[in-house]
Amino acid sequence: MSLIHKSAADLGALIASGEVSAVEVAQAHLDRIAAVEPQVNAFLHVDAETTLEQARVVDARRAAGEDLGPLAGVPIAHKDVFTTKDMPTTAGSKILEGWRPPYDATVTRRLREAGLVILGKTNLDEFAMGSSTENSAYGTTHNPWDLSRIPGGSSGGSSAAVAAYEAPLSTGTDTGGSIRQPAAVTGIVGMKPTYGGSSRYGVIAFASSLDTPGPFARNVMDAALLHEAFSGHDVMDSTSVDAPVPSVVEAARNADVAGLRIGVVKEFGGDGYQPGVLARFHETVELLESMGAKVFEVSCPSFDVALPAYYLIAPSECSSNLARFDAMRYGLRVGDDGTRSAEEVMALTRAQGFGPEVKRRIILGTYALSSGYYDAYYGQAQKVRTLIARDFEAAFQQVDVLISPTTPTTAFAIGERADDPLAMYLADLCTIPANLAGNAAISVPCGLADEDGLPVGLQIMAPVLGDDRCYRVGAAVEKALEARWGGSLLSKAPAL
Amino acid sequence: MSTDTVMPYDEALERFEPVLGLETHVELGTASKMFCGCQAEFGAPPNTNVCPVCLALPGGLPTANVKAIESTIRIGLALNCSIAEWCRFARKNYFYPDMPKNYQISQYDEPLCFDGYLDVEVNGKTVRIEIERVHLEEDTGKSTHVGGATGRIQGADYSIVDYNRAGIPLVEIVTKPIPGTDRLAPEVARAYVTELREVLRTLNVSDVRMEEGSMRSDVNVSLMPRGSSEWGTRTETKNVNSLRSVERAVHSEIERQAAILADGGRIIQETRHFHENTGTTTSGRSKEEAQDYRYFPEPDLVPIAPDVAWVAELKAAMPELPRLRRKRLQQEWGVSDLDMEAMHNNDAIGLVEATVAAGAPPADARKWWMGELSRRANEAGIPLSELLITPDQIARVCAMVAGGALNDKLARQVLEGVLNGEGSPDEVVAARGLQIVNDEGELLAIIDQVLAGNADAAEKVRSGKIAAVGALVGGVMKASRGKADAGRARELLLEKLGVSE
Questions:
Q1: Class of the CATH-defined domain B440-497
Q2: Which family would the database say this protein is a member of (chain B) (predicted)?
């Protein structure tokens, strides 16, 4: 097996034992990137020399006898919303083209300290707004399973990079499903930690009360290792949870569902769901039962209004969060020819610098927060949010985890929903409730849809700070399914 | 600048009744900024106290300064407010180049402190000013508009921005509307700001320098016709940078608004700017089309939930507040209400207290600060506290007078020397040779000299017109350049001339 096909855990072990160097591992992935990027377009920025230099540092630390963590020397790709002091950070927007942050995000910094080697920055929907990467100002990323399809979004560059063996690990952010949905449609694992379980410091904000950094990997254990490496309280993020990180690696090891109570969310399924998606989901439910789990149907009635509530809260927060892009201190500046006022330059810059979806959401949010409309829109949406949290609370009285398909459909074709925002928004139908309530949720592969042979994801939702349950159930499902498939789902993907 | 028609103050007050409101912003003297670790000092080179958070770089997040929250709660307690058990920051959204995030983190409908009051003394009467709210927010950066005539953004060639001030913790203290002040409205406004400043100084939460902008009071004024109970439209006057300006701004707004209303006009709800040189206000930004700030709870910060025990602790540790302190000092010093108020209005109480603490008798300390030194400060156009003399030095001069080494006239010369930077009182006495002449030999020689030159006066005294000795004493004082002890000179003169009283 070539280096690029190995798991992060194996690469870490090989580097730790000195069988391979971090430089060799980095080089193998850089070669892969060079080979497949013309087709996949997962990366916005790759800088081989910076990457190799980081790998050399890890090798030197290792040689000096330093005790490094299990992922030291393992390469990683960061979604281009995590600030990196040695690479540009654009959020997929023209308004930040070429901006080089003077500082590292907490996640970036912690992973650097753990010895992970940054391969580059991955593509995304502009400011993480979208479900396909088609909203990126720098072109669309292609799904490695079928290059005519989307890789999900907004973290589509990160999912595609891992699915295309360009990186064993990557980071993403999940605001309404932006980790789980791309993971589902590319046949990999993606986890949204409990809100506040991973630091937002240095993560370019979309919607502050929802944004959650999380890991992508090709298997559950790798995701857990990455999760553990960057998690934990951060004094730089006021909303960071000051509680011990759930032991997710331990949970991934204890892949067992015997006696566990599992709830199937009644509201997710039926009309609008692709039959192949539902078929794989129901098979997985049966599988869990056969493994000793007790399965119940659980109703969460307010989940039906989660999507509209989300499309008021997220745009409201983004309309304010994105106000800082005003041409004053960094990024694009348009029309500053000495004749225009600061206000005019701000307006021109924002008109040219933001793409249509970002503008749509800024306008939507500005409207929802306006005096006279606030109560009817933003205020009402916050009430829905409370109802959703209560539905979760009631459900977790009865069951240990809730499950559903991650997305209603498999990867759709590039361009298919580009002109229909509402159809695009439906991709996050099942993932949004966990964001609104701040719960932990993971997506793991559960097979290929019969109609199109494309990956289907299983979503496992756990209570706030119950991240370990996601890994425990996810690892059990993975183990059983891989035994059935005779290998990983991804190994069935056509070669690039 | 257009000149408004005004109605003379007395006439204005006959026809209208003023309602006041004051909004005061205070920069807290915390070591670091409100939402990041940058230093909050005044006067650093531009754009040196900045970081990803206060510059609003992408990804920057605020974390609240606990010391600033503590200071705000202490202010609330001193102003007899209720302290919120749970409240949130809110975003106030508007675009302006000196505001890096293009929203200000402030508080909206959930202030940290609310429903309090502050009692102030005006003309020996206590006026209770109700406090609506005390909330915490961050300051903006500072714009400087270059070119153009006014220093305002309109007409400027370009503007430069210093973000050092962006994110400095700012407390906003808002009064409820203050009716019923009648013709004392200007004095009440001034007394409130004076008292508030003293409270803040006592709490040691800010350096409260109005001239440097670390304390800024916006003055709201509206008028209603006598007999009406419906409040008129108010204006908000900014750029009021001293206690005296607070008083003048209210005065001038009353005169201006009265003229408009009497003429059948209407008051525009607007921001006005006070001008120190003319004592009048001019129109600023109109608030007619009220800006929509789209307030919403700040999602980057967790709510503030001050622990009840902590608040109780802060309350227990409150210093003696100025009004109580004044009552105590008045009793200790044995001065009248009016003398006390005069000292208060002149910002002299702390100086007198320190002078007494340095050993001076209260009456002497008050005499110097409220007399000679107030005169000097007025001449120089500066507050008493900025005179180049310390309470210790005043106490030393008092001691020298009490010990007979100086008389009042010499003492004034010593003070002048100290104020001129000639050194300590002892150094000035030595350098200027201001010691009272205590050497009898020297004094007798001067007396002989004066008697020889004033034979007529000497003769009158000898013949029993004792009152004429005054002229001779004057001659001795003149010849000694004021250094003689006048009493002793008189005794010696009478003795020499062979008369007794």
A1: mainly alpha
A2: Belongs to the GatB/GatE family. GatB subfamily.
- The answer to whether the bond into A17 is cis (omega within 30° of 0) is no
Range in A300-304, B74-78, B100-104, B149-153 with the lowest mean pLDDT: B149-153
Domain positions in chain A are 3-255+470-492
Residue A186 has φ and ψ, to the nearest 5°, of: -115, 5
Chain A closest-CA separation from residue B397 CA (Å): 56
Distance of CA B462 to the CA centre of its chain: 58
**Residue B111 carries which side chain, given as an amino acid letter?**
P
pLDDT tens digits for range A266-295: 999 888 899 999 999 999 999 999 999 999
User: CB distance A374–B91 less than 8 Å?
Assistant: no
Rounded CA gap, B214 and A198, in Å? 38
Residue B286's CB: how many other CB atoms inside 10 A? 11
Considering Cα of B202, then B206, then B209, then B213, what sign does the dihedral take?
Answer: negative
Interchain contact B102–A (C-beta under 8 A): yes
CB contact under 8 Å between A326 and B55, yes or no, is: no
Interface confidence, given as ipTM, is 0.96
Q: Which residue of A has its CA nearest to B156?
A: A341
Helix (H, G, I), strand (E, B) or coil at B304: strand
Q: Do A329 and B97 touch (CB under 8 A)?
A: no
Please check the confidence at residue B287 and state whether its pLDDT lies above 70: no
pTM of the model: 0.88
The angle formed by the CA atoms of residues B156, B157 and B158, to the nearest 5 degrees, is: 90
Chain centroid to CA A112? 19
DSSP category for residue A495: P
What are the residues whose beta carbons fall under 8 Å from the beta carbon of A45, sequence distance 6 or more?
A: A80, A87, A88, A120, A121
Mean pLDDT, chain A, integer: 97
- Residue B286: the pLDDT is 59
Query: Reduced to 3 states, what is the DSSP secondary structure of residue A145?
Result: coil
- Dist CA B384 CA B375 (whole Å): 9
Residue B20 DSSP SS3:
strand
Q: Which residues from chain A sit within 8 angstroms of residue B161, using beta carbons? A: 328
Q: Are A210 and A176 in contact (CB under 8 A)?
A: yes
The span from the CA of B53 to the CA of A485, in Å, is 49
Does the bond joining A154 to the residue before it have cis omega, within 30 degrees of 0?
yes
Distance, in Å, from the CA atom of A247 to the CA atom of A472, rounded to the nearest integer, reads 10
CA dist A447 and A475 (Å) reads 15
**Residue where the block lists tokens 């058990």:** B85
DSSP labels, A461-473: EE-TT-HHHHHHH
Mean pLDDT to the nearest integer, A107-112: 98
**A175 is written with which tokens?**
């605001």
* Nearest one of A154, A137, A139 to A214, comparing CA atoms: A154
CATH number of A3-255+470-492: 3.90.1300.10
Contact B57 A329 (CB under 8 A): yes
CA B311 to chain centre: 29
Answer yes or no: do A102 and B57 touch at CB < 8 A. Answer: yes
Reading the block at residue B231, the tokens are 């409040």
For residue A40, give both structure tokens: 């996949």
pLDDT band, very low/low/confident/very high, at B1 (cuts 50, 70, 90)? very low
The 10s digit of each residue's pLDDT in A300-327 is 999 999 999 999 999 999 999 999 999 9
CA distance A285 to A260: 13
Dihedral over Cα of A470, A474, A477, A480: its sign: negative
Q: Tokens 């370009």, residue?
A: B158
Domain map of chain B by residue range? 9-309, 320-432, 440-497
- Pairing mode of beta strands A43-46, A117-122: antiparallel
Which of A234, A324, A364 is the best substitution to test chain B (most B C-beta atoms within 10 A)?
A324
Active-site positions of A? 79, 154, 178
Tally C-beta pairs within 8 A across A and B. Answer: 103
